[in-house]
Amino acid sequence: MWFTQLVERNRQCHPHRTAVADARRSVTWAEFHDRTAQLAHGFAALGIDRGDRVAILSQDRIEVLESYFALARIGALFVPLNHSLSAPEATEIIERVGAVAVVGETELLDRHPELPASVRLRVALDQPVFEALGTEAPEPRPALPDVADTDPVAVLHTSATTGRAKGVTVDAASFRAIALGWLVSARPTDDMVMVNCCPLYHGSMVVSLTYMAAGTTIVLMPGFTPQRAVAAVERHRATHMWMVPQMVRFMLQAKASRTANLGSLREILYGAAPMPPEVYTEAVERLGCGFRQVYGMTEVGGPFVTLGPEEHPAPGQVDARIPCGRVVPGMSARAVDDAGREVPGGEIGEIVVRGPGVMQGYWNEPDATAEITLDGWIRTGDLGFFDGQGRIHLVDRSKDLIIRAGQNVYPSEIERVLTQHPAVLDAAVVGTPDDDYGEVPLAYVVATEGTTAADLLAHARENLAPYKRPTRFEFLAQVPRNPAGKIVKKLLRA
Question: What GO molecular function terms would the record report (predicted)?
Fold first, then answer.
């Protein structure tokens, strides 16, 4: 079983190295190994069995990862929940997966007093009852189930930018395939310490789990703030950070980043959204570290494409979007047309993926699984092309594509141009119906006080063809984004 093997190897090879740290404490690989084994027996003693689903409702902390590994050890599926979900939203997911238990922080559990009938256990991981789990197991301890790598190990929910979140069922073989392929490409060093700024309740967690397979130290935070991120780097002498581009922007804006000692940083991993050129340029110049792009999707196992620091452009030389990079060993991708035929290099098509990292399917949603599957390939919904070096260049989401009088308009291109205006802080573009052209671009913009639509239209005229220019500008205080940094365009369309 991959999860158990991972922990056992790191206990043998790096027993005294810090495995995980959070704001409260840290644990070594030997301690993490012993506690996850102990906790597995504790969960089993509570009646949690192989195949059971257990929801996890918590901010990022050591106990969350301990629970994931312990549940995987007994063949139960961990189901991470976004801790900001409303009571009806969380209840719907818990009921849909038929969770038998909810493990979480007391404050969050108290927000959900009414749970579905399937839930027979509520366990507060910040209370003594959790600490005691497994500590009184008799010796010799009873044998745990024999779990195969092809057994489902988790139900990870999508970010739901276009509709209801779907439960992605993954097995340990998926985690293993992505981890091994990624580590071959990224080649982490033994002294790597990574501050994880992204939450552990969706597919981005795979990045942390992947580096844990190499014995890396992972530093967790109870929610991102730029001040916490900077302090974590300084305190732990972190070599790496895992962020979304908006987090990088916020960190650069924070006063703490100008006075803190961040000289230990060697690499910032970023993904989930395009990196604005001006943010990238400032970050390289200010932080002096390398950047690694992460392109992934929960349905294909997480991060399956990367562009390393050596292939990133020099500051100030980003004239368009930075390519995503190459597929990691073990996974395959191609760009296809509407009929599923592979398109020639340089031509835009939908990116599809296959390999041992892909999901088993959406939980109890065979129709949705069939819809996203194309002759054994998983459809990403992303439009892009391959260059002559095998690198993927993303253009836009297929669902976001605007067709104006038969011409394709990519919102991301307009967003990139708008954010190059010195007064624009953020932008999002969606299609809106038009009697003459069928559909036209509508731009939502966050800008400095005094900026007018006329200012932005003049900027668009200088940088965009007529058919790409927004017909209207709406000013917002903030562009809606989910925790992964992706624009939630369904809210703007509504």
Answer: acid-thiol ligase activity
